[in-house]
């Protein structure tokens, strides 16, 4: 496998932890190398998996059913930050943010089950169970320290239900960091045709998003099994509307001071950010400052 990457990238040496794209790989190269890897391994390696995993070590560690993807290089002794995807996309959207956490937190992405696996799951509770099981298999230990989970948009709602299930198991040290997530806040639906270009989704990625849009809309309306009591929740609230979308769609949501989360948890703090819902990762400096400051 290393020799295949070396030949593709025209490099003398490629190791198991070298990033394909940082080593000179392009989208066209990715298509070619995934076809050749599929032949070698006698199993399908979709191109999107290479974009998610980026290194041979990560790629070979991800099983057919596995959802957990290491997003940065693990540092001994650093706390783990579990990162749960927003709607319509996978955990790869967190890759740039995870690099900024390098050395401070080990970032583990929870990939989007509904995008890549059948049958799809439309129940919030069932999806939270699926993700929590994956987290435990990949090293989550509830009784040995604080659990840190970040979720963006729909991912925040899933994180809330995971925290509810952890509390039901006796956990009292869970911290959630929600990137402009909402709870039980209805709004006018944004047409998918208008939303996909805003998210930068085209081709196969757009087709996958279309297939799961209805299921993920059902998830977004899900209710928590219990209100959180011990879990600390930090909401990073986007204070602007996206100029690429109709202003009327998000204005009413921006006006909700706590995004409705006061009904979901007892310990909530709100950090306002000068950004909109879809470019919130551009406020990474403030997000990282707050999260790392909370674990000192």
Task: Give a brief rundown of this model.
By secondary structure, the protein is α/β, with parallel strands linked by helices. It has twelve helices and seven strands. The N and C termini lie far apart (41 Å).
Q: What is the count of distinct domains? A: 2
Q: Which descriptor suits the 3D outline? A: globular
**What's the average pLDDT?**
91
Structural class label: alpha/beta
Strand content: 15-25%
What sequence of helices (H) and strands (E) makes up the elements?
Answer: HHHHEEHEHHEHEHHEHEH
CATH architecture of the largest domain: 3-Layer(aba) Sandwich
* Count of DSSP strands: 7
Low-confidence stretches: none
> What separation lies between the terminal Cα atoms?
41 Å
* Number of H/I helices: 12
Q: Kindly state the percentage of residues in helix.
A: 40-55%
Report on the architecture of this protein:
By secondary structure, the chain is an alpha/beta fold. The protein folds into 2 domains: 1-62, Non-ribosomal Peptide Synthetase Peptidyl Carrier Protein, Chain A; 65-294, Alpha/Beta hydrolase fold, catalytic domain (Rossmann fold), CATH 3.40.50.1820. It is built from 12 helices and 7 strands. It has a 7-stranded mixed beta sheet, sandwiched between helices. The termini are far apart. The model has no long low-confidence stretch (mean pLDDT 91).
């Amino acid at each position: 496998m290393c020799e295949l990457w070396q030949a593709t990238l025209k490099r003398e040496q490629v190791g198991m932890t070298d990033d394909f794209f940082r080593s000179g790989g392009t989208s066209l190269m990715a298509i070619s190398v995934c076809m050749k890897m599929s032949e070698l391994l006698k199993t399908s390696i979709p191109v999107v998996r290479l974009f998610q995993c980026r290194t041979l070590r990560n790629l070979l560690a991800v099983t057919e059913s596995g959802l957990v993807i290491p997003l940065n290089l693990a540092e001994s002794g650093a706390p783990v930050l579990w990162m749960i995807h927003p709607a319509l996309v996978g955990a790869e959207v967190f890759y740039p943010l995870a690099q900024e956490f390098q050395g401070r937190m080990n970032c583990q992405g929870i990939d989007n089950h509904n995008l890549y696996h059948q049958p799809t799951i439309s129940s919030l509770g069932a999806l939270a169970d699926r993700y929590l099981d994956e987290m435990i298999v990949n090293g989550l230990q509830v009784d040995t320290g604080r659990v840190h989970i970040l979720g963006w948009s729909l991912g925040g709602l899933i994180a809330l239900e995971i925290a509810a299930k952890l509390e039901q198991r006796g956990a009292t040290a869970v911290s959630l960091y929600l990137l402009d997530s909402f709870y039980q806040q209805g709004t006018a639906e944004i047409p998918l045709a208008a939303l996909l270009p805003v998210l930068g989704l085209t081709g196969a990625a757009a087709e996958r998003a279309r297939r799961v849009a209805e299921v993920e809309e059902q998830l977004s309306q899900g209710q928590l099994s219990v209100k959180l009591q011990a879990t600390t929740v930090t909401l990073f609230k986007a204070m602007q509307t996206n100029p690429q979308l109709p202003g009327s769609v998000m204005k009413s949501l921006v006006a909700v001071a706590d995004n409705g989360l006061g009904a979901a948890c007892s310990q909530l703090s709100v950090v306002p950010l000068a950004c909109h819902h879809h470019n919130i990762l551009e406020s990474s400096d403030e997000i990282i400052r707050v999260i790392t400051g909370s674990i000192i």
